[in-house]
Amino acid sequence: MSKKVWDLLCDGAVVYVAGSSTEMPSDVMSALGEIVSEETGGSKEVASRRLKALEKAQRYNVEAWS
Q1: What is the pLDDT of residues 41-65, one digit of tens each?
Q2: Gene3D superfamilies, alphabetically (predicted)?
């Protein structure tokens, strides 16, 4: 499954996260970080930078509430 998610991200997919602000946004970010790290063979820090770039490019969006 991680390869499919990685392939979608590489093809320009946009991620939208919506829901509870308590744990879901950080859990989704953590899961995506693990996927990026696994698929690229990079460190968690490199994966984090890639995900921050997705946010900056408005390809990772969070709408969360409590």
Answers
A1: 999 999 999 999 999 999 999 999 9
A2: Nucleotide-binding domain of ferredoxin-NADP reductase (FNR) module
The residue type at 26 = S
17: pLDDT strictly greater than 90? yes
DSSP per position, 6-42 = HHHHHTT--EEEEEESSSHHHHHHHHHHHHHHHHHT-
Q: Which domains does the chain have, with CATH numbers?
A: 2-65 (3.40.50.80)
Handedness of CA 39, 40, 45, 48 (dihedral sign): negative
Give pTM, 2 decimals.
0.89
DSSP annotation of 57: T
Element holding 65 (H helix, E strand): strand 60-65
